[in-house]
Amino acid sequence: MLHPDTVTAITTVLGEVEALAERQVGWDAEPIVLGLLSPTDGHQRVCVQTLPIASDTWYTPDPLRPQENLPASVVLGGIAEHLAGTSAPTWFAEWARPTEHQLIAVAFVAEFWAGGALEGYAYGDLRAMPALASHELRIVTALDIDGRIHDVTRPRGADPVSVVVAEPPPHALDSLIVAALRRLLAAGTRP
Q: So where are the chain's domains?
């Protein structure tokens, strides 16, 4: 069970990750998968490390619509399936369990359309559309080892909103993103 200060630190760090994305990267950025780690010395701080994913992975063609890319949430699911499987590369265990640290959460940073589809938009092609502040949303979603969902969202041009869901409803746990985070977290924390 995570200490309450660590839970607060996770949400704080995710807010800082989102603010950094806003300041340094801006919009139309590639998704990022993060590991949130806590030192095993008992301190309640949270460290962040990026999962090394090749940039072109996020541009995986949709086999049913070759002119379009798979949605980032589907690609994340494929990454999780690979890294949680028996053929996972050895570097993943080293990434998930660095010396004197414990993996306490896995996070996903990505941009999506908020609301329904827009005319001319091909699913999975956010970068090809003109900027529409009222429809663009950046998410920083994490799942911690106690099953909490930490969510920071920022509509384009607005302030971010942070939420922690202590007991997520079943439909939230079944979402593509949370299911992938759950697989990554389980694979990263198994002995």
A: 4-189
Residues of the chain under the 50 pLDDT cut: 123-124
CB 96 within 8 A of CB 165: no
Two structure tokens written together for 80: 């999780």
What is the pTM for the complete model shown? 0.87
- Per residue in 171-183, pLDDT tens? 776 789 999 999 9
Contacts of 165 (CB under 8 A, 6+ apart): 148, 149, 151, 172
Are 77 and 174 in contact, with CB atoms under 8 Å apart? no
**Structure token pair of residue 105:** 């959460």
Collapsing DSSP to helix, strand or coil, 182 comes out as helix
Which tokens is 153 given?
């969202």
Tokens found for residue 179 = 């299911």
Structure tokens at 112: 């999506």
How many residues are present in the chain? 191
Rounded-to-integer distance, Cα 19 and Cα 16, Å: 5
- The backbone torsions φ and ψ at residue 38, rounded to the nearest 5 degrees and listed phi first, read -125, 135
Q: How far is CA 155 from CA 133, 161, 163, in A?
A: 7, 9, 14
d(CA 139, CA 14): 10
| Beta-ladder partners of 164 | 150
Tell me if residue 62 falls in helix, strand or coil. strand
Query: What sign does the dihedral 178-181-187-190 (CA atoms) show?
Result: negative
